[in-house]
Amino acid sequence: MRTYEAGDITLQRVREYVWEIPREGEMNVPARVLASESLLDEISDDKTLEQLKNTTHLPGIRKHALCMPDGHQGYGFPVGGVAGIDAENGCISPGAVGYDINCGVRLLRTNLAYSDIRGREEELVDALFDAVPSGLGGGGIFEGTRADIEAILEDGMEWALENGYAVPEDLAHCEDEGRRPEADADAVSQKAKDRGRVQVGSLGSGNHFLEVQRVTDVFLEDVAEEFGLEEDQIVVMIHCGSRGLGHQVCTDYLREIEQAHQGVLASLPDKELAAAPAGSQLAEEYYGAMCAAINFAWVNRQLIMHRTREVFEDVFDRSWEEMEMELLYDVAHNIAKKEVHEIDGEDQDLYVHRKGATRAFPAGRPELPPAYADVGQPVLIPGSMGSGSYVLRGGERSLEETFGSTAHGAGRLMSRTEAKNTFWGEDVQDELRDQQHVYVKAQSGATVAEEAPGVYKDVDEVVNVSDALGIGDKVARTYPVCNIKG
Hints:
GO molecular function: GTP binding; metal ion binding; RNA ligase (ATP) activity; RNA ligase (GTP) activity
Strand content: 25-35%
Distance between the termini: 47 Å
Number of strands: 20
Protein name: tRNA-splicing ligase RtcB
Structural class: alpha+beta
Function: Essential for tRNA splicing and maturation. Acts by directly joining spliced tRNA halves to mature-sized tRNAs. Joins RNA with 2',3'-cyclic-phosphate or 3'-phosphate ends to RNA with 5'-hydroxy ends.
Binding site for Mn(2+) 1: 100, 208
Binding site for Mn(2+) 2: 239, 333
Number of helices: 17
């Protein structure tokens, strides 16, 4: 059997693009990495494999721990990690969800062509930058009362619909229709609510962005037609999450769980994997708070999309309805959701933790919206500012291989510090504009340097692995036109 050595960790090749760390010692299950050898070289360059192996110690984990092809080192649980954990006899781990709860991506399609945008890129990027709050700290499109925030946490995009920020079709084209009914606003601390109150409708910082793109390639014409995509079409991708509110939820519960469940903590090789036993009070409270943060993030992206529609109306002097600016789909990352999956021939309730990974359900899965029930879930995988992004659909093998999951992006190669030491933001902006006709605007040059194209893995290779394994099928590729960063 072919093997791959990464320090003191040995991986065995199960088949093409599937590598396994066999179960040994106190591991409850094996660990699998889905990657080409070149991606595996990059994944093994930090502590990703060690973190992945550590996750196999979580109580109640089933089948195997997984690392998607965009995987890299995270907090305790690797980014790109997926784990299905028994929802009755297992646990739930905030570190396996992450700080930016429901950091996710949505794609807004239009009937505009690239020729409608050419020559107006600077006007458009300036208007978007002025209209959509970005960067660290407060400032959002909507600043409400405490009651408003609690309604957002409980009702998600239903609140946006009731308050004029959405139309019914927006909810119909969002994962879970934009609302987790298990949300419990009372389980969210006042500090978290106060942080969120001034950030509703804002990009934040880091790798979050709003990007106008053009469709450059269509791979599955029948599926692309169902998704309303065609070559040369203009679309808008929005990537952000739950801002300071989600970060505070994670911080609050990590501390509480570490203190209350030290017995579980003592059994784990890394305290950053701190977990609450399924059925415990803290597990239920964290799940309710996490679902509330998920709802908050959906509203956050919805308000940014609402403002984007208004900007396009101003720039192009047409209503957004005339431009057919419709939500294709919104996908969530950094969540743990109760789902039913087949384990050893029997259906089991699992907490499926997806940290930096995307749900990718195939056709026929009951959670899919009616528009995509027969074709499969749209999956959105952003690349960098200088590379393409992708639209996939949930692959037929995803349930069997990955608990219905695939990658969530290109995946970082460099830390932010290393990126700032390697790239100069203004130079990156100039090169993107002059050589690739991509217009970028950000709060600072340092932000652009941190997100330079060279900071990321090859998104084409990440997506090709997903496609080859049948967990997420390539439908279309998009390319940046203009981009605003946090």
